[in-house]
Amino acid sequence: MMLRTLACVAAACGLLGASAHAATYNFGGDTTGAPTYHRALASFGDLSPVGTAVHYQTLVFSVDTAGSYDFKSQVSGWDNFTFLYKNAFNPANALSNGVVGNDDLAGVIGASGFSANLSTGTTYIMVTTGFANSDMGAYANSISGAGDVITAAVPEPETYALMGLGLGLVALTARRRKLH
C-alpha cells in the first residue's frame, strides 16, 4: 500500500516517466535581395522549370528531442515554398540532402509547410524561398514539435576579422619576446 501511494505521488510530481514537452520556435525574415538558386521540385526528383533563380534564406538548427515536428511558413502577396534539408544545403546542388518540400499548404497560396520526424544530433536546414523567380518578400515561420529547436549563432564576418587581428597581435608579441 505504501509503495502504491509513493508511486502515485511520484507520478503526480512528474518523477516517473518522461512528460511530453512541446515547444514552438517562431522566426521570420525577408527574401527580397537574398541570394538566388535553382530550386528543386517538392519531390527532389528534378529542378523546377519556373524557380530557376529564386531568392532564399535558411535556418540551420537541430532539436533536443527526437520526434515529429510541424513546419509552417506564412506570407502575404507572394507564393512561398519551403524545404527541409538534412546535414547540409548546397544551393548549387538543390537535389542533394532534401527531406521534404511544400508549396501550397492545404492548397493555400502564401502558406507552405509539412511535418517531419527529426532526430537529435542531426543538423537540419529549413529553406524559405519562392515558387517563381519573382516571388519574394517577408515571411513568418514556425517549427513546433516534441522538443526545442536549437539554432547556432553564425558569427558575422567582422567577428572573424577581429579574431584574426587578435591572433596576429598575440603571434607578434610572442615573436618579439623570443627575439629579446
What is the CATH topology? Jelly Rolls
Q: H/E order of the elements?
A: HEEEEEEEEEEH
Q: What share of residues are in beta strands?
A: 35-45%
User: In terms of per-residue confidence, which ranges show pLDDT below 50 for 5 or more consecutive residues?
Assistant: 1-20
Give the N-terminus to C-terminus distance in angstroms.
81 Å
Report helical residue fraction. Answer: 10-25%
Counted beta strands: 10
**CATH top-level class:** Mainly Beta
What count of structural domains? 1
Instruction: Please give the count of helices.
Output: 2
User: How would the global form be characterised?
Assistant: globular
Major beta-sheet overview:
6 strands, antiparallel
Rounded mean pLDDT is 85
CATH architecture: Sandwich
Instruction: Give the helix/strand class.
Output: alpha+beta
Rounded Rg = 23 Å
Characterization of the model:
By secondary structure, this protein is an alpha+beta fold. The chain has one domain (23-174): Jelly Rolls (Sandwich). The chain is 19% helix and 37% strand. It contains two helices and ten strands; from the N terminus they run αββββββββββα. The protein has helices at 2-12, 157-179; strands at residues 23-30, 36-37, 54-63, 67-75, 80-86, 98-102, 111-118, 124-130, 138-145, 149-151. The protein is globular, with a radius of gyration of 23 Å. 22% of the residues are buried. Residues 1-20 have low confidence and may be disordered.
